[in-house]
Amino acid sequence: MSDTLLLILDLAGIAVFAATGALVGVRKELDVFGIVVLAMLTGLGGGVLRDVLIGAVPPAALDDWRYLVVPAVTGGVVFYFHPTIGRMENQIMVLDAIGLALFCVTGAVKAQEAGLNILAASVLGLLTGVGGGMMRDVAAGRVPVIFRGELYATPAFAGALIASVIHDQGYDAGWYVLGGAVCLVWRLVALRRGWTAPIPPGADRA
Fold first, then answer.
1. C-alpha pair distances (Å), 26 with each of 29, 104, 135
2. Are the CB atoms for 103 and 189 separated by under 8 Å?
3. Hey, which of 18, 25, 42, 55 has its CA 20 to 30 A from 70?
4. Number of helices (H), then strands (E), in the chain
5. Which H/E stretch holds residue 109?
6. What pLDDT was estimated at residue 170?
7. Is 150 strand, coil or helix?
């Protein structure tokens, strides 16, 4: 995958995730600083964790000003226009699913290019996709989404695994879209049909 394409996909995913983080901040009635911080945590957290784990230091988020500006500006936009953006709940969920698909693929590809095997790269692709959201939820005092039964992490891992296999086999970068598509469709169908991950029997009544 070319560096330019990887950068574009990264920044697109960061902007989408940053918007979801900023909306959480608005709903928690945080001030503008808190909203921007949550936006940056959500947009950059997963990528920073991945870069640190593969030894790509300083992380791209700290080495390229664009990685810092995009989530900060997104947080500011949500702060000022949150009444309008907040009414776009369904669209935000779709954008979040797109961001998840982008991040799980780019994260897995970056990990493989750093020399990791297929399984390890898939795990880091998953971490890239869900890491920022976990940081957001912990900072906002919520149980992370991926622990609340939503089918979120599983589609991300599936997409990352497919992308890792495609990269390992040396196929053209255009085939990475297959991994992203699997993650995106799975996540959207789960949202539409209300699919959830299994929980222990009786746990919902405890």
1. 5, 26, 16
2. no
3. 55
4. 8, 0
5. helix 89-113
6. 87
7. strand
Distance CA 38, CA 19 (A): 9
Sequence ranges of the domains in the chain: 3-197
* Exposure string over 186-203, b if 16+ CB within 10 A, otherwise e: bbbebbeeeeeeeeeeee
Angle at 174 between CA 122 and CA 67, to 5 degrees: 65
Using an 8 Å Cβ cutoff, are 51 and 114 in contact? no
| Cα end-to-end distance, the chain, whole Å | 48
Cα distances (angstroms) measured from residue 44 to each of 12, 34, 204: 12, 15, 33
- Provide block-wise average pLDDT over 10 residues at a time, the chain (206 residues): 74 88 88 94 93 90 91 93 77 85 91 93 94 90 82 93 93 86 95 82 57
Residue 128, classified by CB atoms within 10 Å of its CB into exposed (0-12), middle (13-18) or buried (19+), is: buried
- The answer to whether residues 150 and 130 touch, using CB atoms and an 8 Å cutoff, is no
User: Cα(32)–Cα(81) distance, rounded to whole angstroms?
Assistant: 12
Angle between helices 32-53 and 118-139 (to 10 degrees): 160
